[in-house]
Amino acid sequence: MAVLSISRAWLGNSSKSQSIATAVGRQPLSVTYLVIAGGGGGGSCAAGGGAGGYRSSVSGESSGGGSSAEMDLTLSTETPYTLTVGAGGSGGAAASDTSGLAGSNSTLATIVASGGGGGAALGTSSPTSGGSGGGGGLGGQAGAAGTASQGYAGGTGGSSSTNYPGGGGGGAGAIGGNAGGGTVGGDGGAGISSSITGSSVARAGGGGGSTLVGGTAGTASAGGGAGLANSASPGNPGTANTGGGGGAGSGQTLSTADRTGGGAGGSGLVVIRIANTYRAIFSAGVSYSASSSGGYSIYTVTAAGASDTVVFL
Predict the structure, then answer these.
(1) Cα(266)–Cα(190) distance, rounded to whole angstroms?
(2) Mean pLDDT of the 214-223 span
(3) Between 127 and 22, where is the model more confident?
(4) How far are the Cα atoms of 69, 136, 150 from residue 54, in angstroms, in the given order?
(5) Which residues have a Cβ under 8 Å from the Cβ of 67 and sit 6 or more positions away?
(6) How far apart are CA 226 and CA 248, in angstroms?
(7) In the chain, where are the structural domains located?
(8) Is 312 helix (H, G, I), strand (E, B) or coil?
(9) Residue (of 162, 43, 132) closest to 91 by Cα position
């Protein structure tokens, strides 16, 4: 009865009752997330791009680079939080010896996943580091490093010039494969499976390494683009909204003019899971789908730019 009489007394004062409503409305909530950055592009020939950085707080699942699930975010209601889905990096340009470009970061509030690194090409080109690192090129060039707790390094390039094979891009779940001698491109590193949306989906695999004038291409999985062998086609892109690395380009001759260009990395993804007593409101530039399962609301965000936000109510 004491609590009831106090409540009635306060409700008689409009300014005090407004303060109570505001305080109650801003109670924190727990947010389970999966944040994947854009994958790196494959080299114009040779090496696959690295997968985008992979960060997850889903209990019983993994984050990238062999780490355990992170802690859920604790966020306030009625507060705008940054929300960005990173684009995949471009592949190395055709008719050139150029590395792929790194993917862009994805962000949810304070959680930032780093874009995947670009794969190397022939010549003096080098791979770049990222969420997962790009694969290395000719001459036993080492793959680039991944980011701790987000992904793995790329694989090493071939040691001889028979078919100029490149290393596979690093994946969220494993190091990119090394090229096999002078004839076999490295496989893209494995991704990670998550059931945050209700069904298990593998994402953030590295791009496969390629060869010139014959040889055997590196494979890829979990959204990574496969490598090519003795091909006139552009490199295979990473799959959209998986953060997969792009596959390397190829060529049917040793001429630089014959380089086909690397595949672009796949765009990233942000998945948000909250208790269904709350809801998420997105700014106008966000593309998303919503579902529900087991007392939770699940929001799968496939596109969000640098100025976009999410507010929880």
Answers:
(1) 15
(2) 97
(3) 127
(4) 10, 21, 5
(5) 148, 149
(6) 8
(7) 28-313
(8) strand
(9) 43
pLDDT at 184: 97
One-letter amino acid at 80 equals P
Backbone angles phi, psi at 311, to 5 degrees: -125, 135
Where do the DSSP E strands lie in the chain?
Answer: 29-36, 54-56, 73-75, 81-84, 106-108, 111-113, 192-194, 201-203, 269-275, 280-282, 287-293, 296-303, 309-312
Handedness of CA 169, 240, 115, 172 (dihedral sign): negative
| Cα 242 to Cα 40, 136, 155, 234, distances in angstroms | 12, 22, 20, 20
Mean pLDDT, the chain, whole residue set: 91
194: its two tokens: 């998550």
pLDDT number for residue 181: 84
- Helix then strand count (H, E) for the chain reads 2, 13
**Residue among 147, 195, 243 nearest 32 (CA):** 195
pLDDT band of residue 26 (cuts 50, 70, 90) is low
Among residues 69, 48, 5, the alpha carbon closest in space to that of 211 is found at 48
157-198, pLDDT tens digit by residue?
A: 998 888 999 999 999 999 999 999 899 999 999 999 999 999
